[in-house]
Amino acid sequence: MGLSILGIFHTFIGVVAIAAAIIGFIKNGKIDLGQITGKIYFYFTLVTSLTALGLSKHGGFNPGHVFALFIVVLICIAYFLYIKKQERRKARFYENFLLSFSFFLSLIPTVNETFTRVPIGHPLAKAPTDPIIGQTLLVLFITFIIGSVLQFRMQKKINNQ
User: Fold this and answer.
1) For residue 158, how many other CB atoms are within 10 A of its CB?
2) Percent above pLDDT 70 for the chain
3) How far apart are CA 143 and CA 151, in angstroms?
4) Which of 87, 109, 129, 159 is 20 to 30 A distant from 9 in Cα terms?
């Protein structure tokens, strides 16, 4: 697999962030920054995205680094909405969407890197353009859209109570 120490750390922290988000979705229907899973997701995603800036297969600053910075911006805006706009019900819609969107975006490089590396010696995909990666990302995107609609409806019920 050929991962550096930073790459191993980045991967481990990223897997923990993804696991925390999935647990949050199962338990709360969203990534809830008020819960331990939401806090783990936020901080571990922040570290994962920042450590991604030190990684590069192709050398130098690349679109993957821009992607990582975009995820940092999304989760920081969501955190700001959570901390500063507690009393505003409308802010919860944006917070939920931004966290879910950041999760979806985190899965794009995760799927790409995993499918082009695992299983070792005979990876599922030969390159990022392999159809299995595109098909998997399409399924994840559809799941994200459905999940976002369900979160919106759930938040609307909460706001109306």
Assistant:
1) 10
2) 98
3) 12
4) 129
pLDDT score, position 92: 93
Contact indicator for 151, 30 with CB cutoff of 8 Å = yes
Q: What is the dihedral of CA 55, 56, 59, 65, to 10 degrees?
A: -90
Residue that the structure tokens 């450590």 belong to: 51
Q: Tell me how far apart the alpha carbons of residues 9 and 29 are, in angstroms, rounded to a whole number.
A: 28
Averaged pLDDT for residues 113-140: 93
**Start-to-end C-alpha separation, the chain:** 51
Please state, in angstroms and rounded to a whole number, the distance separating the CA atoms of residues 86 and 80: 10
Question: Could you tell me the CA-to-CA distances from 6 to 12, 69, 105, 143 in Å, in that order?
Answer: 10, 17, 21, 31
38 C-beta neighbours (distance < 10 Å), count: 22
Check pLDDT > 60 for residue 96: yes
Instruction: Please name which of 44, 20, 14, 19 lies closest in space to residue 32, comparing C-alpha atoms.
Output: 20
pLDDT tens string 46-86 = 999 999 998 876 667 878 889 999 999 999 999 999 999 88
